[in-house]
Amino acid sequence: MHSKLCWAWSAVLFAAVAAAVAGGPQTQGEPPKQEPQKSAAEQYKALAKEFTDARTAYSKAIQEAQKLSPQPQKYAAQMLKIATDYPKDPAAVDALVWVCTNLASGADFDKALGMLVSDHADSPKLVTLCNTLSRSPTGEKTLRTILEKSPHRDVKGVACFSLAQLLKNNADRGGASAELPKEAETLLDRVVKEFADVKMGTRPIGPQAEGILFEARHLSIGKVAPEIEGEDIDGVKFKLSDYRGKVVMIDFWGHW
């Protein structure tokens, strides 16, 4: 009986050792098979395809996002209704300015602009509207009205500057870019003298008006170039006027 028990335990121990040897750690067995190294051409094609696929996915995402972009025309009628239902409320001006600054033209734009001029020309909130009208070919009449009727210095200043810009832009579109219209020049002079510290956005309008005037008076085609003084590469001083009567090419460049 004792010998049979020993034999059984020996058989179990042998089986356990055999199993341990057969299923031992991977580090003692053969290493796993590795994929063959791709050629340079294969790697390039795979990477280029990955980029193309990513760019295609990006373009599709942009197209889908554009479908979600809110259209101001959808809200203009509701904004006009607010202004019509609550004409004495300050929100009426906000709603009308919203329509004018978000629509470039159209029936709703014209209606909102008319209501602002007829009912709210004395509002201090018209500063934003003046800036918008400076880029509108049809904004001249409104800007003149605001400049005349507004009791607010900042509104008058921005209206004056915007009207000058509009007149200049209209002249540019008509092929008269070399000449600043006389009235625009007069308005810009007024901006410099009366409203230089008034801000449009975050920038004062005075320096902007001065820049436009200087360009028109000194840098336009046919104008005498302003004097330039400097030194050449040998340290010799010179002036632009030294070359009067000669063909001169001036190259302005720098590092930013």
Structural notes for this entry:
Helix 3 (72-85) runs antiparallel to helix 4 (90-102), helix 6 packs parallel to helix 8 and helix 7 packs antiparallel against helix 8. Mean pLDDT is 84; it is low at 1-23. With 256 residues, the chain is mostly helical. The protein has helices at residues 2-22, 40-67, 72-85, 90-102, 107-119, 127-133, 140-149, 153-173, 182-194, 205-219; strands spanning 199-200, 203-204, 229-231, 237-239. A hairpin with a 5-residue loop joins strand 3 (229-231) and strand 4 (237-239). The chain has ten helices and four strands; from the N terminus they run αααααααααββαββ. It is 61% helix and 4% strand. Strands 1-2 form a two-stranded antiparallel ribbon. It has a domain at 73-226.
List keywords for this structure.
two-stranded antiparallel sheet; mainly alpha; 256 residues; disordered N terminus; 4 strands; two-stranded antiparallel ribbon; 10 helices
